[in-house]
Amino acid sequence: MRTFTEQLAAAGAQCTVVSGEAEAGASLARILTVAAARRVVGSDAPLVQRLLRTLGAGFSLERLEHLSRDQLFACDAGVTTAQWGIAETGTLVLESARELSRLVSLVPPIHVALLSARCICDSLGEALARVRQPGGGVASHVITFITGPSRTSDIELTLVMGVHGPQTVHVLLMEEP
What are the boundaries of each domain within the chain? Predict the structure, then answer.
């Protein structure tokens, strides 16, 4: 876990270790409040939906299935789970077959991902082995790998954050209570 959090920080992401859903909900509210995020969209993961319901009245909770593309771009934050974390790079792995999360993790300027500490793999190879189904195939049509905030340096070789995705990535690393 230590290697994962160190690599996550090196990639420019933030991490809060929490124990249980109540602490995760309080940390999520704090992260969104500090960031002044008001319009929040969550994936369809049951954990995400439970945590969003605990947020106070200061937030406008959006349902992904009811949003147009333009409305999604107007959201301040997206909340998902991550199925796996890769310790050697601080990378999050999101599987499309597990939840509707791809646009929620890539469009709003803030992405908060919930990850179980027991789902941290040592390497990319280990993560890919866990994604594979028996027989060698994969269940997900899309697997998204997220290593820190979006960044590009294709404009005059100047590093710019958040042009093609979230400017901020925050992981709520959930330990077993």
Answer: 2-175
